Amino acid sequence: QLANCIEREWKKYLNLTYYEIPDNLGYVEGSLEGEKLTIENRCYQSTHFRKLHLELAQIGDRLDILHCVMFPHSNYDLPIFGVDLVGSKAGIGAAIVDLSPVNNERILNNNYQKTLANLPKITFSHPRNLPNWGHIFSQFCLFVQPHNSHEEQLFLDRVEAYLTLHCQTAIKTVAVSDQLSQAQILAGQRYYCTQQQQNDKTRRVLEKSLGKTWTDNYMTQML
């Protein structure tokens, strides 16, 4: 449902073209503790975004993972939309969505703040704590363990609200032309990526299945 929602919103608002995926990283198969590991990547680009990445991974029938991130071109001063889901037979163990600012102040602009603050308040029974590198996220980051189908739907609805706002804002955003602003935007995106790469769980799973060299290449070239 979430993958379909993301692609639907992208196609509705953005002029998508395919993003060239590095060799041998589009679809990957491996083995982890005797179970098959599969990773499917779908990547696009548009006028405002240099890379729209949707990753779906599965480990046997015990773990399903969705990862999505939208990297703006460096001449558009926009936050980074990101969402992750980790599901198992017991349900969704982790669900996180955010519009992460990449400016020096780590603050979303007034349009984002006003719109997000005015969304209906929702309460989840099992909120989760951000990792120690979670300072890259905004004050509106939602990180929870949905307790039932109702909370799962609440999370899906909130992701769609964030994504709609982001796409609508992007297509109205005027590109910046000065090199200093573009350099600052790119530096902010690089910092976001270096912090995300501290996710040891992702690295451990990939290294155990596909080796350290392949994992280093995948995390730097694909993720």
What does this structure look like?
By secondary structure, this protein is α+β, with helices and mostly antiparallel strands. 37% of the residues lie in helices and 28% in strands. The protein contains 6 helices and 8 strands, in the order αβββββββαβαααα. A hairpin with a 2-residue loop joins β2 and β3. α1 (2-13) packs parallel to α3 (149-172), α2 (110-117) packs antiparallel against α3 and α5 (200-210) crosses α6 (212-221). The radius of gyration is 17 Å and the shape is globular.
Count up the helices.
Answer: 6
Low-pLDDT runs: none
Beta-strand segment tally? 8
Radius of gyration: 17 Å
- Percent range for β-strand residues: 25-35%
Q: What is the string of helix and strand elements?
A: HEEEEEEEHEHHHH
Distance between the termini: 22 Å
Name the features.
223 residues, alpha+beta, eight-stranded antiparallel β-sheet
